[in-house]
Amino acid sequence: MAKRKVRTSIRTAKAGSDYSVGNLPEGTIRMDLNMNLLGPNPAVERFMRSGKFQTHEYPTPNSDELREALAKEWRLEPGNIVCGNGVDDIIDLTIKAFTMRGDRIVYPSPSFSMYAFWAKVYGCTPMEVPMGPGFTVDVDGLLKEPAKLMLVARPNNPTGNMLPEKDMRRLIEGTKAMVALDEAYIEYSGGSFMDRLKNYPNLVIFRTFSKAYAIAGLRVGAAAATDGIKRLNEVKPPFNLNLVSEKAAIVALRDKAWLKRTVNILLKEREKLAISLKGLGFLVYPSVTNFLLCEAPMSSKALCTELARRGIMIKDHGDIPGLADHVRITAGAPKHNKLFLEKVKDILEKNGKGVRGR
């Protein structure tokens, strides 16, 4: 059979290990994907059981009802918003809209793996600017790179920290590039730039329903922009968000009491988890999200493997330059965290690490 030609840009594109977890036993506790581990929003569960949607019908081409709800929430016009099939879809649209093959895309490193993935798929050059001590973003280094698009996660994944507001302003105001600000974890940290969007024609803001809103399985993301929204709409296919996901997102958006309550619980649990992990010998970095980045007191690969055998998944970041033996742990409900800590203590003791402070 003749060898088929493929698009050369996809040969080095990999979606990252976050997306290749394999088949897991039922009951596995997923402390590796930064979901809201307190479970589904009851209001969304009631909506899904109600059957108040017609699956034989198409949704509106541009998710009009959800855009109207988000516009009210963010004090924008519906025309300033584009919806999509999760933030991965939004990143795809953004790179298609603002770059051409061969253009440079700059972002801090380490950060979300999908930035490099989509950059490579479209034949762009990903320019990673390493963070400084304590995972501080090298603002001057980012501004120095002649790029068409800058991607900044705030708060950042996997480090969990927050770029200061003054530095974010410097990036937006100091570059000729389009700036995409990924606010996937903003519900945990506060400090959104959404209320300043109208001041910055070169800014696009990403938001997701997969984290705090707890509908990761329904895949809902959105982007907000002023001048850039026209370009995003030009590359967005119709019907890229399904009818059920759109309506479920509106229900989740309206239930502010549940969101506030679960965010508060998870932030408290994160702090308790950090204290316990330090007592077990982990180096725990400050976080403003629902997860912790830690340096483990043993091989991160071995730790993750042993935990998986015991029914708990955490994220191994040991293969990222500068993060040898680092893991990312999603804070869960008290029962999740208690079981996780028991399993970790057992693994450390069996590996001769004991329990010590760090």
Q: Can you describe what's shown?
A:
With 358 residues, this protein is α/β, with parallel strands linked by helices. It folds into two domains: 23-39 and 257-350, Aspartate Aminotransferase, domain 1 (Alpha-Beta Complex), CATH 3.90.1150.10; 42-254, Aspartate Aminotransferase, domain 2. The protein is 37% helix and 15% strand. It contains twelve helices and 13 strands. It has helices at residues 42-50, 64-74, 86-98, 113-121, 139-144, 165-174, 186-189, 229-235, 243-254, 256-279, 300-309, 334-350; strands at 29-30, 81-84, 104-109, 125-130, 149-153, 178-182, 203-208, 221-225, 283-284, 291-295, 312-313, 315-316, 326-330. The strands form three sheets. It has a seven-stranded mixed beta sheet, with helices on both faces. The protein has a four-stranded antiparallel beta sheet with strand order 9-10-13-12. A two-stranded parallel ribbon has the order 1-11. Helix 3 crosses helix 4 (113-121) and helix 3 (86-98) crosses helix 8. The longest helix has 24 residues, at 256-279. The protein is globular, with a radius of gyration of 21 Å.
Shape: globular
Main sheet characteristics: 7 strands, mixed
What's the rounded overall pLDDT mean? 93
CATH topology of the largest domain: Aspartate Aminotransferase, domain 2
> Strands of the biggest beta sheet: in what spatial order?
2-8-7-6-5-3-4
- Count the E strands: 13
Poorly predicted runs are none
Could you give me the name of the CATH homologous superfamily of the largest domain? Type I PLP-dependent aspartate aminotransferase-like (Major domain)
Round the Cα radius of gyration to an integer and report it.
21 Å
Number of domains: 2
Helical percent range?
A: 25-40%
- Name the structural class: alpha/beta
Would you state the CATH class of the largest domain? Answer: Alpha Beta
Classify the beta-strand content into a percent band.
15-25%
Q: Span between N and C termini?
A: 59 Å
User: What is the second-level CATH architecture of the largest domain?
Assistant: 3-Layer(aba) Sandwich
How are helices and strands ordered from N to C? EHHEHEHEHEHEHEEHHHEEHEEEH
